[in-house]
Amino acid sequence: MNLRVPGPTPLPPSVVEAMTQPMIGHRTDDFRHLMREVQEPLRAVFGTRGDVLILTASGTGGLEAAITNLLSPGDWAVAACIGAFGERFADIAEAFGVNVRRLEFPVGEAADPVKVADALRDAPPVKALLLTHNETMTGVTNDVPALIAAAREVQPDIYAIVDGVSSVAAMPMLADAWGCDAVVTASQKALMAPPGLALVALSERAWTAIEESHMPRFYWDFKQARKLAQIGETPFTPAVSALQGLRAGLRLLMEEGLEAAFERHRHVARLARDGLRDIGFAMVADERHASPTVTAAWVPEGVDADALLRCMAEQHGVIAAPGHVKDKTIRLAHMGWVSEADMRDALEAVEASVRYLRGE
Ligand SMILES: *Cc1c(COP(=O)(O)O)cnc(C)c1O
Q1: Strands (E), 148-260
Q2: Of 175, 156, 140, 141, the residue nearest 51 (C-alpha)
Q3: CA–centroid distance, residue 90 to ligand 1 (Å)
Q4: In whole angstroms, how far apart are CA 22 and each of 195, 245, 356?
Q5: Confidence (pTM)
Q6: CA of 135 to the centre of ligand 1 (A)
Q7: Ligand 1 centre and the CA of 59: distance in Å?
Q8: Is 88 exposed, middle or buried (0-12, 13-18, 19+ CB in 10 A)?
């Protein structure tokens, strides 16, 4: 099987093996050692010297945790939404009583720093800017440092909270250098690990926001998480097997080298776009901002996307995902453990399935 959905992603054999190790207690030296071993590689993938908290949650849980720890009900936030995941991030903030101003951008385009600055110019003090680093629904990567810089030209104190779920570990993320205050990712995307963990990188300044926040919270308490992390533990029972898998995934990533991994993602993504275009697909993403981790495309005229996905799965064992327009778009993910051969195999399945559906 060739799993090409944007998470969970395929697992390398060493990760599968790590996850099937006998269980260990989460208040033992073995566990504390495991927690310490993942810290340095996690700092490297986030581009930070600060704390990276490990939460037992999916990516959405990590995003909710960032909102509930840094913000308070009644705060203002500006959300740059370029697709479904950006909208979800705004929805989460709204669910907790944050006043969210959504900036919408055309499908397939990246968020425009000028528009973000304009929205902040005639606004009351805005506590946070909510950004999606890589919009997984449209396959578009935002220019996070440009967006943060543009926002801070107008409102210098604004906190930047970034959804890096489908970007971190597959493309450069320099949380410290770019001035991100919270960056969230999840174990099951580019980290080559199973679902179960959300990772949250926090700036020094984020802790000021956390001190000020009076949002109710219990399970997602960053102060508790940091306190326990200092002794190599977590406040509650963590997903131990997922963490063992994450350690193995991070080992592979460090052996390959981050730059090499980023280049592999760019290369496979280019192959996906060129290959799909050759078969008659049109790209959803503006080429200048096309994502290295997921490609969304409009199916050729006369082909039903649903039928295409079913044919690819049933006849070729290639599992892809629908896109933002269910019967007209598909997405091929290429994040984490993915090679050129995987992508060539997926493209062959797309081509054969298009032919089959046309009765050729
Ligand atoms: C996958 C993803 C999420 C989180 O999804 P979960 O299913 O909660 O892990 C959030 N944002 C983006 C951009 C994603 O790709």
Answers
A1: 159-163, 182-186, 197-202
A2: 175
A3: 13
A4: 19, 13, 47
A5: 0.98
A6: 9
A7: 5
A8: middle
Atom number of ligand 1 nearest to Cα 59: 9
Q: Which residue has the tokens 């994450």?
A: 246
Q: In the numeric block, which tokens belong to residue 4?
A: 């090409």
What six digits make up the tokens of 183? 């960056």
Find out whether 264 and 286 touch, Cβ atoms under 8 Å. Answer: no
Is any atom of ligand 1 closer than 6 Å to the C-beta of 165? yes
Q: What is the pLDDT of residue 123?
A: 87
Q: What is the pLDDT of residues 97-156, one digit of tens each?
A: 999 999 999 999 999 999 999 999 988 999 999 999 999 999 999 999 999 999 999 999
Distance 70 CA to ligand 1 centre (A): 20
Whether 132 lines ligand 1, by a CB cut-off of 6 Å, is yes
CB of 7 within 6 A of ligand 1: the answer is: yes
Cα–chain-centroid distance for residue 305?
24
Coil, helix or strand for 322? Answer: strand
Determine the distance separating the centroid of ligand 1 and the alpha carbon of 11, expressed in angstroms: 18
User: Could you report the per-residue pLDDT of 282-312, keeping only the tens digit for each?
Assistant: 999 999 999 999 999 999 999 999 999 999 9
Residue 234: both structure tokens together: 């977590």
The DSSP element (H or E) to which 214 belongs, if any, is none
- Pocket probe mutation, ligand 1, options 81, 85, 135, 167, max atoms within 8 Å of Cβ: 85
Q: Would the pLDDT of 36 be above 90?
A: yes
